[in-house]
Write the structure tokens for this entry.
Amino acid sequence: MSLIRIIPLQFSRVDLLEKMLPVISSHFKMETRLSDWHIDLTQFFDPVRSQYNANEMIQQLIPLAEKDDKIVGVTDLDLFIPVLSFIFGQAYLGGSAALISGHRLENQRYGLADDPKLYADRLIKCMVHELGHAFGLKHCLHPGCIMVSTTYVEEMDQKLDRFCRNCGRELAQIKG
Ligand SMILES: [Zn+2]
Ligand SMILES: [Zn+2]
């Protein structure tokens, strides 16, 4: 049976991931587990940008997927892909792996007071969005849909952590 496996990769809030398991499971109707996996992340560090290369990291996650598994790496590290200054997350359309970062989801990063609830909301939205891509969903224009593309946390805060009707229907079709 295929699974969604969430893998902390230098991520400090594993307790939050544990709480997210049933939420992810209900969104995608798939058993969701937390998994341990150890890899030296320093190999992905780009000293010029002082960030970590998300494309290279995600490549390492792909072979971990068996059959139709989806693998989600979650990190505190600041991620980039060469064409963008930073990313919240990354996934290949219809691929088996996704990667998200909590680095830019914290209010403190923007000079605002810590808000653990908001951080948790953003983290789950980020994960559902990237998993949506991994299941084959593209970006959506429907206001509030989790699959709307977001560049800033403020935009993320306007989204709900759910799929619009179209995206929900498409996901159901993909999953058969
Ligand atoms: Zn996206
Ligand atoms: Zn949508």
Remarks:
- Residues 140, 142, 145, 147, 163-164, 166-167 surround zinc ion (ligand 2) (CB under 6 Å).
- The beta strands are 4-8, 32-34, 45-46, 51-53, 70-75, 79-81, 84-87, 89-91, 97-101.
- The chain has a mean pLDDT of 95.
